[in-house]
Hints:
Elements: E1 6-8, H1 10-16, E2 28-33, E3 37-43, H2 63-81, E4 89-101, E5 110-119, E6 126-135, E7 138-151
Keywords: Cytoplasm, Lipid A biosynthesis, Lipid biosynthesis, Lipid metabolism, Lyase
Active site: 54
Pfam family, one: FabA
Amino acid sequence: MTTETQSADIQLIQRILPHRYPFLLVDRVEDIDGITSARGIKNVTMNEPHFQGHFPGTPIMPGVTIVEAMAQTAGVMLGVGMDMIDTELLIYFMNIDKCKFRRKVVPGDVLEMHVTKVRGKPGGKIFKFHGKAVVGDEVAAEAEFTAMVDRQEG
């Protein structure tokens, strides 16, 4: 592991996470500090499929997709921090706690997901994170979530 911060563009993200359109919900991850913290960026656009029905005429990003974007940011952080690029990494939710939604996220917003590791060790399977999603200086959502890392054997 390295002590310098790193970043992941969309090409690297796709080498870490199995998610693809329409469920890849992070465009870039910056300020990756090992497996300690990272900042994901999602450019919210009107052409995303959930806006067709959530809600017609008043598009609002579903809260569950905001939480998923925080989790994907954590997954990229683990992938970079534990050198699990090109390993068919799967990460599963185990628990979501203290989830609160505070602001609507709409097309045109730049959503930043700030995630920090609460518990977990390199090589471990279970990790707990705190995530905060913000638009500008306003908190849109926050949650604690636990996930299991499943390294696929090739």
